[in-house]
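Researcher: We're teaching a course module on how sequence relates to structure. For the next exercise, students receive a sequence and then see the predicted structure as tokens, so they can try to spot secondary structure elements on their own. Here is the exercise chain.
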Amino acid sequence: LGYFNRLREMSLESQKTQLFCKPLSRTDINVRLSVPMESLDAFEFAEGEFKVDFKAIDIEEKPWRFCLSKRENDVHPKPVLSAGWLAYVQKKRLQKDDKLLLHVERKEEEEKRYRIQVLRKAFKLCGSDIWVDVENLKKDV
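Model: And here is the predicted structure for the students to work with:
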């Protein structure tokens, strides 16, 4: 119940936009996270820079630092998360086919914040996949 109350409070307090939802590949888990190009506009790269550091908050309100980089002078920038990503993968025990959700939220009079969440398929119910936050799964271990 507390989990759902936190989600409801977050949605009431802020304007939240999903940047992407992506099933994780083996490369995402073992090397770096490939980020969809459509989400690049949500990050503020300094003029002439090809990297940006940012902080994302998980469902437990823990901040995680990441570095998003893109190719220099290329029509297809191929953005990736590298620095900080593998530590997150290890701590959360992420697996191939988990779903990563990245949101950006903007509260009144505050700068934007990023939220990160990972879901894992738990079971099927009436033919539909039921996904659970990996934080809830870790507590059962």
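Model: If you want an answer key for the exercise: Helices lie at 2-13, 26-30, 85-92, 134-138. The mean pLDDT is 83.
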